[in-house]
């Protein structure tokens, strides 16, 4: 029988692919765009456009990717800043805002979150939709993660027989690890209503998906018949070829998150840094290379990270101690508004995008600042004297 790839919005919405070259802002800072379909260029087709059918006055609207919020199960709502001003620059989160910028985003996001719509399949041929390798690869690219098994860096239990206990796990960048249960004919291709805030009381006995990624995988398996073992093989091949920033630990079958290719990590002298200077240790690791020649020790150094966007080093504080570790670290509101935090104690909110990403990296890999220093040292020239 022919597999159905129904688009639940096909009767009410039209979709189109575009890119930043042919879908331009009408003016800087505004969220009004103009589409140039006749522009001669090689379209990247990485922007999804949408408009309602039958509305002759409507223009194509941009639909941003579905926000990754694993603990949120409520209805999507419009961004108040966007509604008030119509200007995306007035929203402090910009393109990363998890509130919708238009009603079309709400329509599409709602269907995507429940697994009823896959934007990657809107413009694909049936043959491509039935290609399991293509489908799994799209998920890896979308979620920036890897399917893995037998990972000692994830499993907190003592060593135990693997085959009798194995399961499929998806490790997504910045979102932790999600279990993907076995798909069978009893599974319902819909999200469990309890999973986001109560956890399903039936656990493995529940036939509904407990996460968006589990639902997406079940749909791929339903359409293509790919097994969990083959999913891991596809993921491993893709990971080895395209993800050099996901670094495997030697001697383990798992993977740890690597830093973004946009970030450069280094440790510098804390005393020099306080004076507005940046200096590194000498080859003997006894003194810094600054004019003051401060004694070099691990506890007298600071972690600096430089991003390609800002090209200016930013100091990273140690991972904050908290009784309940958050799933995500957020940027301090005072820093966003005033570019300075006036909190008298140790602020547990990140003071820069770089610090937020580093904290997520440290949390996901269970690293403290000493371990970050040791890792940097092992990768630097000082380990090859």
Automatic annotation (TrEMBL):
GO terms for biological process: miRNA processing. Residues 73-104, 326-354 form the C3H1-type domain. Keywords: Metal-binding, Zinc, Zinc-finger. A zinc finger (C3H1-type) spans 73-104, 326-354. GO terms for molecular function: miRNA binding; zinc ion binding. It comes from the Eukaryota. InterPro entries: ZC3H7A/B, Znf_CCCH, Znf_CCCH_sf. The keyword Chaperone does not apply. PANTHER family: MICRO-RNA BINDING ZINC FINGER CCCH DOMAIN-CONTAINING PROTEIN 7, ZINC FINGER CCCH DOMAIN-CONTAINING PROTEIN 7B. This is C3H1-type domain-containing protein. It comes from Tetraodon nigroviridis (Spotted green pufferfish). The lineage of its organism: Eukaryota, Metazoa, Chordata, Craniata, Vertebrata.
């Amino acid at each position: 029988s022919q597999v159905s790839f129904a688009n639940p919005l096909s009767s009410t919405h039209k979709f189109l692919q575009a890119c930043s070259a042919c879908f331009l802002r009408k003016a800087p800072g505004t969220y009004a765009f103009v589409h140039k379909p006749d522009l001669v260029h090689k379209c990247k087709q990485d922007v999804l456009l949408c408009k309602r059918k039958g509305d002759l006055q409507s223009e194509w609207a941009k639909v941003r990717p579905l926000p990754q919020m694993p603990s949120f199960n409520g209805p999507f709502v419009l961004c108040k800043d966007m509604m008030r001003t119509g200007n995306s620059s007035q929203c402090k989160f910009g393109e990363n805002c998890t509130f919708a910028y238009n009603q079309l985003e709400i329509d599409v996001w709602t269907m995507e979150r429940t697994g009823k719509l896959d934007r990657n399949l809107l413009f694909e041929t049936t043959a491509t939709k039935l290609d399991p390798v293509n489908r799994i690869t799209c998920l890896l690219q979308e979620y920036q993660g890897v399917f893995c098994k037998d990972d000692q860096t994830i499993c907190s239990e003592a060593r135990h027989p693997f085959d009798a206990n194995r399961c499929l796990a998806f490790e997504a960048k910045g979102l932790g690890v999600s279990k993907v249960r076995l798909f069978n004919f009893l599974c319902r291709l819909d999200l469990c209503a309890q999973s986001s805030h109560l956890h399903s009381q039936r656990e493995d006995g529940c036939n509904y998906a407990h996460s968006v990624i589990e639902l997406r995988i079940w749909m791929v398996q339903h359409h293509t018949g790919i097994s969990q073992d083959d999913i891991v093989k596809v993921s491993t091949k893709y990971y080895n070829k395209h993800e050099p920033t996901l670094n495997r630990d030697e001697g383990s079958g798992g993977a740890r998150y690597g830093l973004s290719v946009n970030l450069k990590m280094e440790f510098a002298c804390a005393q020099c840094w306080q004076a507005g200077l940046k200096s590194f240790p000498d080859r003997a690791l006894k003194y810094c290379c600054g004019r003051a020649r401060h004694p070099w020790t691990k506890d007298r150094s600071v972690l600096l990270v430089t991003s390609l966007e800002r090209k200016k080093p930013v100091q990273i504080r140690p991972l904050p101690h908290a009784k309940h570790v958050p799933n995500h670290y957020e940027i301090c509101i005072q820093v966003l508004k005033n570019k300075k935090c006036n909190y008298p104690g140790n602020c547990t909110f990140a003071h820069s995008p770089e610090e937020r990403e580093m904290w997520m990296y440290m949390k996901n890999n269970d690293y403290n600042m000493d371990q970050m220093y040791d890792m940097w040292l092992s990768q630097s020239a000082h380990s090859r004297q």
